[in-house]
Amino acid sequence: MCEAAAYIIRNGKEELFLEDVDIIEPEGDELRLVSIFGEQKVIKAAIQSLNLVNHKVILKER
Amino acid sequence: MCEAAAYIIRNGKEELFLEDVDIIEPEGDELRLVSIFGEQKVIKAAIQSLNLVNHKVILKER
């Protein structure tokens, strides 16, 4: 499976925000993330970087 | 491998922009995409949606 873990940068550190992320959709200045298990989270953030081979998404708060 | 194909929406249709994408990094109002083969492309676009399980990234031009 090719889901990824999404981390948010807080105080200069990467904090796990959601595991097993399947879908990411920007909506205005928010991001909607949905995991392969259907868990959904919305955060006021932007994508800082995606690394698909390493299964890692880095978010930064707006 | 978990690379994805990136498509850009033009005239309402999805056009393949870059295959085997590993890394996506927003830089200002541009996106830098790097494939697993090191091919790099920059486009004035935003991420419209990511679907990691389906290996699909949809971009929209700015």
Automatic annotation (TrEMBL), chains A, B:
Pfam families: CooT
Taxonomic source organism: Desulfobacca acetoxidans (strain ATCC 700848 / DSM 11109 / ASRB2)
Organism lineage: Bacteria, Pseudomonadati, Thermodesulfobacteriota, Desulfobaccia, Desulfobaccales
Protein name: RNA-binding protein
